[in-house]
Amino acid sequence: MIYYLLTERGDHTFRDSPILDDPRLAGRFEVVTYTEAFRRRHWQGGSIVFSDIDRLMPADMLRATLLYRRLRRARGRMRLLNHPTRTASRYTLLRRLYEAGINRHNVYRVDEEPRRQRFPVFLRSDSRHDGPYTDLIHDGDTLDAEIWRLTSLGLDPRDLLIVEYFDTADDRGVYRKCTAFVVGDAIFQRYMCFGDRWVVSPPRTGDVQRLRDEQSMIDEEAGYVGADTWLPVLRRVAELGGLGFGRIDFGIKDGRPEIWEANTNPDPAASRYAELGGREERNVPIGRRFLRDALAALDDDAAHATAIEIDTPPATSDWYDWFKDDVRQRIGKSAG
């Protein structure tokens, strides 16, 4: 059995997805909200994907971690993908990639001191998948003004990131957004989109067709989908991010990938990307086949037949009372 855990806000990806129209997944893939999962005692063996982690509120993050611990300790064949608190946030992943020499651009929290960012930069959320909140910013005064503006509107400064801009345009001014999926042990290149602006909104952004003809873009994507060009680096990205399931987005410059983010609850079918030129007939089926194969590999008959029962995770307040008592005992202080 494959359980896919997500938040109510993120419940629009795998539920009723055409990706699941595969006989190998029939009756073996269940979308479960975290609210439902916290009440569930009976599970079947197989795999559980903890997705949508960045949307979890702190109390739910705690309960998801407690659920993970109880499932991991349960008897039965159960594989857990994405630890709720050990799968890296956008900030943590990008900082690790910069320090590892994989990325050439760095990232900072707005309240981080000292800031040694190089300009231009832009502001975006650490937890939301809604793109940049500003255009490119070229000096410190403008940056401070934009931070003031966004926090005055109510955005949490603890969730705001300063991201260094790294120009990945080719010599024609074309930008690429490349994606790769991580599904357990499988990593595969999924699709490539093109644009004439630094923010690429799939499948085509702006008037990119004046820079590249459509057929050449389809041909380039065809050579990318399912190839293994970037897999060694992408596997390292997944390791650094603690990512067992999700989508990695990146650009390419000077023969090197530049990683933008990893999304733990990606759109599996990407249907809106398909309706362009010959992509639906030529490129899209390859990526969907890889995804279906990888999902099917997460389950097997022996695991599927295993019944698992756990105690449901406690309410956050009950757990915290226990935690405080445990801390006092460990450091030798009285309950008072």
Structure description:
This protein is an alpha/beta fold and 336 residues long. Helix content is 31%, strand content 23%. It is built from ten helices and 14 strands. The chain has helices at 34-39, 58-73, 90-99, 140-152, 214-224, 231-241, 279-282, 284-296, 301-304, 316-331, and strands spanning 2-6, 29-33, 42-44, 46-50, 78-81, 107-109, 121-125, 160-164, 175-183, 186-195, 204-205, 245-253, 256-263, 307-309. The strands form four sheets. The chain has a five-stranded mixed sheet. Helix 2 (58-73) links the parallel strand 4 and strand 5 (78-81). The longest helix is centred in the N-terminal third of the chain and has 16 residues, at 58-73. The radius of gyration is 22 Å and the shape is globular. It starts with a strand and ends in a 5-residue tail after the last helix.
Short description:
Strand 4, helix 2 and strand 5 form a beta-alpha-beta unit. By secondary structure, this protein is an alpha/beta fold.
- How many E strands? 14
Rg from C-alpha positions? 22 Å
In one word, what is the shape?
Answer: globular
Count of discrete alpha- or pi-helical segments spanning 4 or more residues: 10
